Structures
1.
Amino acid sequence: MLTLAELLKILPDARYQGAADPAATTVDAVTADSRLVQPGSLFVAVSGGRVDGHRFLLAACAAGASALLGSTPLATLLASGMIPPDVPYVQTADSRIALALSCAALHDFPSRKLPVIGVTGTDGKTTTCMLLESILATATADVAYPAGRVGVVTTVGAHIYGQAIDTGLHVTTPDAPAVQRFLAEMVAAGCQYAVIESTSHGLAQARVAAVDFDIAAVTNITHEHLDFHGTRDAYVAAKARLFRSLYATPPKPGVARCAVLNADDTGSYGALLAVLSQEALLHNCQVPVRSYGIPTHGATRLDVVATDVAYTTDRTRFSVAWWGGVFPVETPLIGEFNVYNILCAITAALTLGIAPGIVQEGIAKMPGVLGRMQRMDRGQPFLAVVDFAHTPISLENALRTLRLLVGLNAPDGAGRLIAVFGSAGLRDRAKRALMGRVSGRLADFSVITAEDPRTEDLDEICRAIERGVCEFAGPGAYAIVTDRAEAIQTAVHMAQPGDVVVAFGKGHERSMCFGETEYPWSDQDVMLAALDCRIP
């Protein structure tokens, strides 16, 4: 609990308007959802989304809100009847930032009490966060805490001491109240580290605005979310907010600070270095920059390097050269993209002072992430996989990796790569044909299907993908099956020994959106059901 007066001190450009004494007005909870308002809540009216939160000020008052916060002048709200007279009202320029700061203040700024690592990027964020969890859990495990003292918030869910906490059916970064609540729970539980996956939506919408980051890491930045951000520059700028937050975070005693960049990702490396230079001038301080990569890919200055990379069908081995020496790594994760994810996690962990031996152990025992190259087995003579790849680059990386597994169960080593995928409605339309081109070029057979069509015409989405497929594949190399369960069943039924069947795009998600409704969905359940009823 805190008073409105205490809250006003930490909100930038806050203007209080009301007859009540802010020092006597208490706040027991903070929310931007009027349905969650209880007596004593601060209701924050957020604008800029599909619905203007200022429309729900009256409802929040009726539910017992002790104070209101928004970005619209009080006089305008009173004139339009959107707010009752004499209700404590705080106006700020950016109510999203005010929401994050208010939630952090309510929980006594939990991110100031432990090291926090933020991970952003287009692909590989969740895997990198889970790798960090495994490394840091290994570093902090003891008899009392066998699962380690680490908390993680990702798009898959939240973990505290290895215990899973659901964050919703279909989310990116959780909203600011949830993020601060998770951080407070981590502090209360005695966690020694926190890892926060930070999506571009989460950064742009200030969901992590009040998190004090000590390490900011990026996996890569490719073609994605231009429907939301508008341009690639705006997308990169949203990702760069994580690094701006890093500079805005006051140093914590005994905690290392660092920006971790992928030097081989030429599309983002230079832009993020420029942001870091600007922030260094603005804050009159320097934050160390560590870069990682694979030397054969052209980068000249690397702090953490993967050499002697060797891939097999079920694991990857390589050597890591860093500023303190060289050590080997072995992981059940496969594919070059996972080498980059591992390098990103290693760079952050070594910066925190984690010993190489602990890093090795943590990586070796991290089996995988839900919906990321997840193998589905019912004893069938072919490989079935569920993967989250939903961008042109991630789809290409996944298909190239899976190509290594084709023919494993066939006596003659022959086999086909069968890809089931779609593209989301009300999202970047340009990537639909790009996804089709990738699959048409790299898969032997493409099954085009639904992936959250939302309010768009599913047939039209599929035809856009089809145009891309047809640039590289003939009519006999693809099919359109709009029902996703039927599409997966079709791929499973056509599979022969040595084939690889993979469903892309949903991964860990537990719902699929048709119209404006989220329906329960699991690619894993559907894939297993298809395998169970496969025609012999």
2.
Amino acid sequence: MTFAKLVRYFEQIQATSKRLEMAVILGELFGALDAPKEIALVVYLCQGQLRPAFENPEFGMSEKLLQKALVSATGSTEQDVAAAFRASGDYGSVVEQLGRPQRGTAAVQTVYARLADIAAESGGGSVVRKVTLLADLLGCVSPGEAKYIVRIVLGRLRLGVGDPTVLDGLANAFGVDKTERIYLDHAYNRCCDLGLVAQTLAIHGLARIKEFEVVVGCPIRPALAARLSSPEEIMEKIGPCAVEEKYDGFRAQVHKDGSTVKIFSRNLENISAMFPEIVAGTLRQVTAQRAIYEGEAMAYDARTRRYLPFQITVQRKRKHDIAAMQREVPLRIFVFDVLYAEEDLTGLSFRERRRRMNTLFKTSADGVLQISPVREVETAKELNEIFEEAVASGREGIVAKRWDARYQAGGRNFNWIKLKRSYAALLSDTIDAVIIGYYHGKGIRASLGMGSLLVAVYDHREERFKTVAKVGSGWSDEELIRLKEMLEKIRLPASPPGVDSLLEPDEWVEPKYVIEIQADEITKSPVHTCGKSSPQEPGFALRFPRSVHFVRRDKSPRDATTVEEIIHLYSLQGRRG
């Protein structure tokens, strides 16, 4: 397929906001490819990437470097490029406007290879080489093609296509009916690589998808816990169960493949380089050659033998001064599940996975890897005692787990149920919300450039973000300045694709950053779209929301609290009232 033909499909997708229409267009695109080996590349490009998110290379090109490439490719002056950008706010539109007429004949694979070459450039002189390579590529494609190449390089393709929509497109292209569509979800949740799923389906068919197993080195989408408000509700829901303390650290999924260890965060970011002690501990303490385990990492004070608060633990998530921080804030990781040990274990019960866990690790009192203690309970009274012990010892609460449950990658259900310590407010849990815009503010806040944030939760069914609150408190002035700088880099001229909002902030931003919010309660609201089923019906909103932490780097926008969870929390709140 030529890249020009791919761009025509991009234009069709961008022209609609309807998920079903996008899936139909994607189905036609995937079905029109000339060879099965093209499909992985096309899937990545539809996401504005070269590889799956957990290993996607960065192009390393600032807007200043891009401007130089545009000047070279179009023969325009720097002043022409700057003026065109001021008018449109989009460098893709700039190159489309200023580009030289060309006939689009380059193949998708050729464009992809050249983009990969740009991303791979490093070392001395790489900046000049990147600019030259991009200018050469833009100079040999049509202005319409150049528009999308520039957006991909800047990470701003923004077709509004979510992962489930891509999977629907694959189902349309390869005749997977609604009853078997779930197998595509299962395969994707086991590898987090849409290109791999697409290529497997295109070459081997649905039969191989049904047998899809986890891949060491590809992160598994984490299983998530549902919420309930009391031990009695938990016992009523799942009966006798396993109970573990809920640690106030950050979740890590660790993959060992011989002497190679990769660590992935909850939002599937490769964070291996940040935590050398977890890498070393895995090589030392995991007996299997190939294994995947999950745990909660926490800062540990060896002198006092105490685990430290999350605010200290999170300081370890950095790309610089790693050795110094390792000495200052050493980590331990509490292992709570094993997903692979020479074979895929996700289909086994939790009880069997715990049994395998006990034979997989060499444990010691001073080991970096510690197995999370688990207790079996049969009554609400026993569960409540464990919960109170956990809270008294400084833990967030507890997680109850069904002994017979398989590991459901990417699922939030009642196989795992969390119970957290209550706050004085009616709303007893925090909300993870996505920033979609901000207001300039008044008074002192105006001098900082930002007053409050417009935030949203995620609707999985519609693949859209729905507004739930305006948040204006919980940060220091220094944090607000830092947050403003972060948001300016992802500012948009109009409402982002995939966002439903009745409110108009002063500035729209790409849905990228997740913040943790505490509120007094959830109320009905005519101005927010969370849970709003019709123009006449109210939605849901957070009353007196305030930020609890700065920005949650461990969560992606689609890992935020869902509309369904807000509605569920509203019903729980009513029971307490």
3.
Amino acid sequence: MQISRRSGAFIIAAALAFAFGTAHSQLGAQSPAAQPAPAAQSSSGLQLDAMDKSVDACTDFYKFACGNWMEKNPVPADRSSWGRFDELQERNNETLKKILESAAAGTDAGSKKIGDYYASCMDESAINTKGAAPLDPLLKKIAALTSPTALAPLVAELHTIGINPFFSFGTEADFKDASVEMAIADQGGMGLPDRDYYFRDDAKSVELRKQYVEHVGKMAGLLGDAPGQAEAVMKVETALAKAALDVVSRRDPNKIYHKLSVAELQALTPQFQWQQYFSGIGSPPIYALNVTEPDFFKALGQTIASTPIDELKAYLRWHVAHASAAILSAPFVNENFRFYGTQLTGAKELRPRWKRCVQYTDDDLGEALGQAFVKEAFGPQAKADTLKMVHELEAALEKDINSLAWMTETTKKEALTKLHAISEKIGYPEQWRDYSALTITRGDALGNSQRSNAFEFRRSLAKIGKPVDKTEWEMTPPTVNAYYNPLENNINFPAGILQPPFYSAKADAAVNFGGSGAVIGHELTHGFDDQGRQFDARGNLKDWWTPADAKAFEDRAQCFVDYYSSLTAVDDVKLNGKLTLGENAADNGGLRISLMAYLARTPAAPAAAIDGFTPEQRLFLGWGQVWCENMRPELARMLAQTNPHSPGRERVNGVVANMPEFQKAFSCKAGAPMVRQTQCRVW
């Protein structure tokens, strides 16, 4: 189980944010065993009892689509948010629980690993009896450290098992030759959500830093450390944060691609022995690597050299405890949740253990568990329907590109070449991951987690210098999300999201186009947003735009930046229009493309109303209802500062307010809140 993104797997995905969903990290907070309320009788597949028809759709469409749902679905005590994504993930988790309980109790050799992993995680009594003892071997190695020059082998060992002090390391396609895997070294080593958390001077940020130092101190106390260690940790992390790029800067792929030789990397950080590190992680020969942020690694070396050895040890001990806390004894679990679950995101209670163990099993054995999930929950009809919709959405996007008045024929030709080259992955991998080399031992929860991390890390490192395998997935099949990978130019839809409210074989086509169709359109347009447009049809970082077209795009994109920056996330915090640009443009373009595709499928004659709504209205409601959610203010504040996705209300109202098609569908008058006078549009 990993607190942070798995090392070695699409390491800059957080910077090149092309996922569809909200991507919250709860760190121990999730819903109780709630099930979605039964929908009112519906012929279309809409959840009619979710709507608040007392609200004018042209005044607040989000509340019109979701108002009653929001009233009836307050955030559960062990959640910091609750929405339709969570409802679906909850249903998926119930399926996973049955699979894992059966595997844990059974004798089937094919499911033994997932059963033993889950059973070990669920054995809370055994875990509590061990206390912090499972960390002793690592803590002794840290205690034996005598000089900063000896750090590299120890950091290598920690990175291998999923503990990531100082920086992150893994593999990624070469931005300039996306057919080949290369090593990548990236910023890291910080326990707060983003580098700006270390420097914001508003009262809430200052207080949160105090709470963080208190948390680090309490974790150190659980390890038996003397007081005062937390200040040393904060000193090191602040030095790293100072040299790190902010989340908006990291959205520019040119700012996080610097291909260097090992000798050049060593010159950046002469205080850290890179060859010893590479030997320690067992990497194949590395002749060049992407050092995402050279200034960060220069500062890393300086920080190592200027920090007393005892403070470096305190920093390392903290990261061992931090990365391991969720799978250790109750005092570690509870303290970890107190800060990351309650103080940072507002959750009130720790989620039930079985839900945490389902998540951890999915994290570490996702394709073994996912294979069983697909058999239970994903039929061939969903895959066939999704693929059909993909082709219809691609045809609609092609028509849209050809009709763009602001794009020249030269760039249109390149755009269509890229569109035609997009490949799609639906539901689950063609080739399931082979976990035969991974040892899972019943009764060794932390060891299972560490060995799983090492298995994945080494599997990833083995790809260095080899051709990119575009059949691999970055999400597990039960995941309620989707993504576009610019380096592979493909769109990916796990089985977990191809279910109600996004897709149902029984639902009206308009509702499905508002749900899963908009997901498809969203991901397709990511290939042409402010980030994706910088990669060509082969996935290479290459400028294929004429200067005039690039300026025309940027002018239209700025409209989205300005508009969303004017919206309030919570209290005194506005949305960051630059951070959310790609996702906002994808939402706006994706729904428009989905509407075009739906209308191209249907006959020219007006279709009959269902449930009192026209086809176009049902499509917009299908979109609106996938985003019904409630969120605690603590999480809303954090996401506004770190997440490239806007909140649900803004994802719904922000899209329809920029669409004349919505105005027409609901007969909205000019000047209504859902009809912007100056509407933003790229696609």
4.
Amino acid sequence: MLSFDSALSNALKLGNTTAFWVLKLYYNAEGSGDFIGVSDTHRVDGSDIYYGLVSSWGNYSQSLDFFNFTTSTGNMSVRLINTDKSIQGGRFSDLFSTNNFANRKWELFLNTSQAGTYDTAVRMIGTGIISGNIKYDTNSVSLSLLDFDSKYHQELPTTVVVSSTYSNAPEKNINKPIPMFYGDCHDKDSSSIGTIPTSGAQFDRYYTKGKFPAIITDKFDSTNANIEALVDNETPHTLDTENIYMKVDDNFAVCLNTTQSGNKITVSDVDWRVYITPTHHNTYSSGTNYGQTVNRDFRISAPYTLSASDGTGTTGWRIPKIPKLGEFTDIKVLIALRDMATDPGSTINAFFISKADGTSIADLSGSWSDGNDADVTSSSIAGLYSSPEKDSWDFENSFLLKLTDASGDSSVKIAEIALEIQFEPSQIFEKIISEPHEVTIAYSEFYTSTINEDGEQVPSTRRLNRTRSVQTPVISDYIYFSGKGRKYPAFIDADSRNQGYNETDLIENPVYIIEDVLRTELSLTSSEIDHASFDTSGNTTDGYLGDIYDDAVGDVKFAFSQYKFINSKDFISRICKQILSWVFISGDGKFKIKTLRRVGDYDSADKTIDFNDINLKSISKTSLGGVRNDITVNYNFDYGEDQFLSNANPTADSTSKGTTVNGYNVSDGLKLEIDADVLDDDTAGATSGKGLADAYMTIFKDRKVILDFDCIRPLYNDLEIGDIITFDNWDTNLKLYGTAFSSDYFIVQDIAKRPEGCSIKSIKVDA
């Protein structure tokens, strides 16, 4: 809601108030005095003159799409008198010889005769850019007043690989974007899989949340024989030398000799290793639970125990077919053990890796500790193969792990077994990007439906809102990494803000990802961003983001790399769809965000409207086409394969599918599928009752009540889209679809303002 000053607010409350607009049309350099003021009648405000040239005002309109989480500001039209001697001794169009208004700023102010200065910031209700499409004749001039979208929004990422800076960059990477990297794709959460070994057999090199692209800016540094790549134009929170990869075939190979500095990672060796999970070989295995050895889980809740119960214990694995990735160097078995135990007086005669015929190829005998911490080792099994087999990567074979004990009392719990193949690759870092530029689209897929309302066909399969390509496929060069992305800049602590985050903290909160893009990429400041609205949505204590996700704000974690070109408005719209929010440029010229909350979370309104001040035009409901009761969220994006690896799909809502008063008679359900920029299960909604999937289910499964009305006084012209309203003095004889009005809350969906009042369409949000 706009914040009018007290003098204007008090004047608007008076029943006999006459309100009016004044408009400042800036020209040329847009200096403080470079404007022509106009109004409906001649007005003087100190040294400012507002010529009475306005013959008609158009509506100043704002609109939000409730179900698509997009916004728009309608182009406002103004018609000016252009007769001879109407301004400065001539016509308004005569000013065009010295004053260029096209693509310059305009500012619109609401005033009353009881209030003072006309053009104070707290009375501004609209601002933007004057369209270059100016038409006139001998009687009138027509102006179209646009919002600031064209001024602020631009292509992201804003930094690209240029040859003047990166002279050794691959030619195919010139003018390609340097990624924007947000969130945490580094250490995998080990609470669900136990302690991941970080030394010896370093499983942690492969067990990461994700692997994100870094664009190569120097394919071969002749001085240091390095390959250099950038993960972002900004310095990220965390990078390390253990987690740099190359996409080879279906695998991510890790490089063992790398460096990292700021936002740059450097590959300085040809020693690459790829992680392969073998298949357990039941034929040679004794005991039960032997599948636990290859389940990528290091816990001991149900381990496989290899026992020398009869003097010898044996278990085995099959090595799958592995495509040739380069010049073979070595093949090792990675072993994570837990609780190597012997009874008093017993001795372990041998613990070794062998061929299927029992021939030992690696001796593992040694000091293994008791207890629950994993002991790890890696041991070469290259002796399993002949030179021709190594050259041709003919690794399909079997190997055994054998434990022998004369007394038959020894045992070992095997947490995990894996293969690590060491090789020298041909330097191939190409990635085909089939969608190099993203734009927001919304479309529906239909099948035959019998549900109709006023002749409307309802989409009953699914409705997708995502970004997709509009350009030709290209090839770029990338390597990959796991780390933590952008840090909060100083803005998070400026302006006396206190939302639970501090400068240099990791940015995972999607609300502040949007604000960071506005500030870091679009170079906007607090004079152009309503940071209070961002803190209302995103603060860690009671941010509305936590309400809609039904989770702690700190647990809503986004992680992605924006490595394709996308318009900043489309980028913001994509994030808004995932946090059920709207970002728009307010009438005061600042970016604001409004976040939807769940039913039961609303306990106050931005403004209470007197029912006696409105003309109610209609009560209706949102379209059946907006109902979705079967939600799928795709997440955990694999940048190497260009596909999502996981999805969250809560149980479809049965009530809205059914034939009761709250049902819509759609037995198969109305599906919606959305792509999410997250790796985290809980954020996506894989956990029942929380997250994005459940938020969409909660909001989309029901039709909402709509109120359409005119306000006959300008008292409510401080309202904007996204504001929450309620009513007093409601007509008790008028029910909302059979239910009595009871301090119900509505969100302003559309508002069209005029000097004497406004028209509002609002949607009920508390039921």
